[in-house]
Amino acid sequence: MKTKRDGGGGGDGSGDKVDQPAQVRIGEAAAMLGVSVESLRRWERDGRLRIVRTSSGQRLIPLSEVLRLLEDRRHAGIDRPIVAQSARNRFPGVVTRIEKDRVAAVVEIMAGPHRLVSLMTAEAVDEMGLQVGDEAIGVVKATNLIVEIPSTKERKS
Questions:
Q1: What residue ranges of the chain are covered by domains with CATH 1.10.1660.10?
Q2: Which pLDDT belongs to residue 15?
Q3: Which terminus, N or C, of the chain has the lesser number of Cβ atoms within 10 Å?
Q4: The pLDDT of residue 85
Q5: Confidence tier at 112 by pLDDT (50, 70, 90)
Q6: How many helices (H) and strands (E) are present in the chain, helices listed first?
Q7: In whole angstroms, how far apart are CA 119 and each of 22, 44, 100?
Q8: Does the domain at residues 1-78 carry the CATH identifier 1.10.1660.10?
């Protein structure tokens, strides 16, 4: 990935360069985001994306903008309700224990007489906002335990 670092030659011959935020060419940004260059141009027109232009007219996109769009996309799928799933062993219960370090977490769910323990990333626990006392569903698929959070009654239409 090439980034633009030159602050622009002031013509004074000093050779000083001013660090600017990392920028990528529009084609590179399109590849990172999995969209077309035309989509990025349209997003710029719609105000969804900030694109800067060089003095020669080349479009550059700040890497921070690409990362923001990737983060937005990652969080967009989180709010969608689950409408179907292949797993059949679902155990609704309550989170009774969370042990978390910087990387991994152990989550325990008491589901009736069943004690289910899941090893997951600490990031997943944080993203789910999982806390002791929360309702959760332990989903057992083969040897894996997947944790889901049911929607609240207020969300149901």
A1: 1-78
A2: 45
A3: C
A4: 72
A5: confident
A6: 4, 8
A7: 37, 42, 10
A8: yes
Sign of the torsion formed by the C-alpha atoms of 123, 124, 125 and 129: positive
Instruction: Give dist(CA 5, CA 12) in Å, integer.
Output: 18
Nearest 5°: phi and psi at 146?
Answer: -105, 135
Class of domain 89-148 as given by CATH: mainly beta
157: CB partners within 8 A, 6+ apart: none
Residues 55-83 have pLDDT tens digits of: 998 889 998 898 888 887 776 655 566 67
pLDDT recorded at residue 95: 92
E strand spans, 19-62: 23-25, 52-53, 59-62
The CATH 2.40.50.100 portion of the chain extends over 89-148
End-to-end CA distance of the chain: give it in Å, rounded.
47
